[in-house]
Each structure stands twice: as C-alpha cells, then as structure tokens.
Amino acid sequence: MVPLINNSAIFFEKTRTLLISELHLGFGLKYSAIFADTIFNDCLKRLDTIIKTHKIEYLIVGGDVKEKIGKPSKKEGEYLQMFEKFLLERSISAVIVKGNHDGLIENYVNFKITEFFTLNDGEANFCIFHGHKVPPVELQSFDHLLMAHIHPSVRIDGSKSFVWVFLKKVDGSRPKSVIIMPPFNKFVGGGNPKILQSKVFSKILGGKSWKGHLVSVDGVYLGEFKPLFL
Length: 230
Known about the structure:
By secondary structure, this protein is α/β, with parallel strands linked by helices. It has a single domain, classed as Purple Acid Phosphatase, chain A, domain 2 (4-Layer Sandwich), CATH 3.60.21. It is built from three helices and 16 strands. Strands 7, 8, 9, 10, 11, 12, 14 and 15 form an eight-stranded mixed beta sheet that branches. The protein has a six-stranded mixed beta sheet with strand order 1-2-3-4-5-6, with no helix packed on it. Strands 13-16 form a two-stranded parallel sheet. Strand 7 (116-120) and strand 8 form a beta hairpin. The radius of gyration is 17 Å and the shape is globular. Residues 16-141 form the Calcineurin-like phosphoesterase domain. This is Calcineurin-like phosphoesterase domain-containing protein. One of its GO terms (molecular function) is hydrolase activity.
C-alpha cells in the first residue's frame, strides 16, 4: 500500500488497485456549467495520468462520487455516465464505497456498490469505508482503516491546503492505523483535521490512544497532533 501523496490517492501495487475518494462530480453546477465541466475534466485528466503511470486495473472510489446528496440533476447524471464510459474504455473494473452524497447512485451507474470494502495486499488487510457512519463490520479484525469524508485541510497564510491525516494506534492494537484521505476533487471545501466532531469517529477510533500526523498534498510534513474527539 503506497499513498500517492501528490495525487490524493492510494496505490496497491500487487493488485494494481487505485483508491480515491471525494470526486463530487457535479460540483460547481450551482455556479455555472462551464465551471463544473472544468472541474470534471480536471478530475478525469489527473485520473487518466495515474491509471497510465501505474498500470491500474481496478479502481475503488471511497465515497461521494457525485455532488448532490439526493437524485442527481440531468447534467450530473451525464457526468456519471461519462465517468463510467471513461473507465470502461480503459478496461478498469470499479467499486463504489457509498458515501453520504451517493444516494440513488445505483440507478445511474453499473458499478459494484457497497457500504464498505475489504482488501488484502499480501502484507496487511484493509477496511475501506467513507466515514459518515460506522460500517457493519468488526473493525478490530483489520490492520488498517482507510476513509475520507471530512476533506481534511489546513490554512497557511490564508490559503487552504488539503492534507493527509495519518493516525497511529499508540498501544499497537488493531486497527494499527487509520488514514483519512484528502479529496481527489481539488475544488471542494475543507474541514479541520484536528477536530473529529462526529460520534462516528469516536466509535471508530475509540477517542484516546491515537497519535496523528499531517502531510500536505504537496508532500510537506506539517507535524504531529493529538486529535480531539468531540
């Protein structure tokens, strides 16, 4: 398992699998269709580069493929169809781990859709879920948890920078670590990675025996922090 820090993605080399989260296809439509098209094309262009560079065969989207929480608009539905065609043309098999924005998505794409996804790369086993609710599985049976949802970011000199959140269990018990991924869509809003405010995070992480580290999507180590569970 290799985090592609600058690409907001995780690569599983042995299975040629790529994990991304937070595409939010359709984001920007409330401003203008041109803006939304620009964002959509940016996402596909960057994804295409990663697919070619790493010879990707399988794609996992860890939630929030689309922007609108309920039924997608006509234009958003078109984005979903174009995204599916994009992957089919590259012979990529895809799984969607359903996020809070992915309501009714099963009516618009033919991907496998699930609440969580498990993966073993030969060295460790992983549980992948979005993060808006606790997945119906025993999390202590996994070495590592991979999630998204909060769009972790920091502000430096007034500018927003998305970050990776790496959490490590202090006592070494399972799960040993949690990675909270930055959004693949660079234009969405961000949240404070130090304050994990929902009851979901408290249930998932237990609330105490964790140390956190932040790394910007530019690859800059931003230091250690102790997460606050509110």
